[in-house]
Specification:
single chain; 112 residues; mainly alpha; Tetracycline Repressor, domain 2; 6 helices
Length: 112
Amino acid sequence: MTEPDKDQCDLLDGLRRGRPAAGQDPVKRSQIIEGARRVFIDKGFEAASMNDITREAGVSKGTIYVYFANKEELFEALIEEERGTIFKNMYDVLERTDHIRGTLVRFGMVLS
């Protein structure tokens, strides 16, 4: 078994205290990403500001910077999350089918 790294130890310490350590709460991180998603869709990347995102996500400016150093890093996290969702959906389609035509139709629906 491998030794836990520092981030894992911080997370475990936070959980022992009843809450995740700063920057380690997956619910808060998702809340920020969802707020960013809405702002980026509404305003576009260039016009969106971290202030807009904090308001939309319902978090403080200090909180958002604990999770993400800047708007670019937040956008990257959003893109990674979207990519993961798309790949998971594609994998699910491929896993549950045995007919090639139906697979291709469902695959196309996932991509659209």
